[in-house]
Amino acid sequence: MERVALYLQDSHDLRDGLEYARYAEQRGFEAVWQAESRLVRDAIVPMAAYAAVTERVKVGSGVLNNWTRNIGLLASTFLTLDDLAPNRVICGIGAWWDPLAKNVGIDRKKPLTAMRETITVLRRLLNMERVSFEGEFIHVHEIELDVVHGRREPRNVPIMLGATGDLMMELTGEIADGAVLNYCVPPEYNDRALELLEKGAKKAGRNLEEIDRPQLIVCSVDEDHDTAIETTKMLLCQYLAQQPHIAKASGVSESVVQEIQSILGWPATKEQINRAKHLVPDELVHRITASGTPAEARAKVAEYTKRGCTCPILYAAGGNVKLLIDTFGG
Fold this sequence. Notes:
46% of the residues are buried. This protein is 46% helix and 16% strand. Strand 4 (64-65), helix 3 (71-84) and strand 5 (89-94) form a beta-alpha-beta unit. The longest helix is centred in the last third of the chain and has 18 residues, at 225-242. By secondary structure, the protein is α/β, with parallel strands linked by helices. It has a single domain (5-223, 313-328), classed as Alpha-Beta Barrel (TIM Barrel), CATH 3.20.20. The strands form 2 sheets. Strands 1, 2, 3, 4, 5, 8, 9, 10, 11 and 12 form a 10-stranded parallel β-sheet that branches. A two-stranded antiparallel sheet has the order 6-7.
């Protein structure tokens, strides 16, 4: 593939992630993305570590939420990452999700307005402007990134929006540098997403081809087909139970979701996951992930690129991560 990236979350030792990042770079991967979703690893510490042990590969957040970091801290964080790895940092940002946001005291009201304000001010700060902004969510007066020692020029940090809902996807086409397209969805999901991105792009006088469209794709590769499928089931049962927006986008029946939820706690234990994973149908694994032998995984990923994905971001569900990298590496 012309472009391919690796997505790391928490299914491996963090120090192993450094080796995966180095190996992905050696095999020609374009980027390494770090997840930030559940109350597990934050994205920034691993991103800095990946950047420090590589020289060429880009490092992205997949994705941060726009609620828990003050806009000044958010901008200075990405300025710092860009100091560490100039022109190699990608800011992936999303609107987060309930019930997790609500459980930590965040009221996600007017998510579209909040996201528009975040991206508007973040972009101006990273452009090294002095910014005053009085919005519904962001209120800043005469602030700028205070660089005493270092580069004063505007920073090249693409802002990619991870959208799920139709209106957020349309907003992505209007204001973001690109969309981090959803995972746990079938390839045909992209058809509607591209329509919405194009609609938003037209509002800003742009066209669809100006919107980069990397896509998260759950990918478990093993020489044994059944082993790869079992690994993916362990991941999917957690997502279907704990992230309702993913279950909805996946088109999974409510009865399956409820049965899995009745078994899994929060956080889910390994024992609970093993009890619930059999409820995930094989058909679903094949429909919404790229899991199986290397040949099967490559064929499935190709379906997403044919539907408009510009760069597969392969979510290593577990198992043999180096085999996954070898399967897609140049």
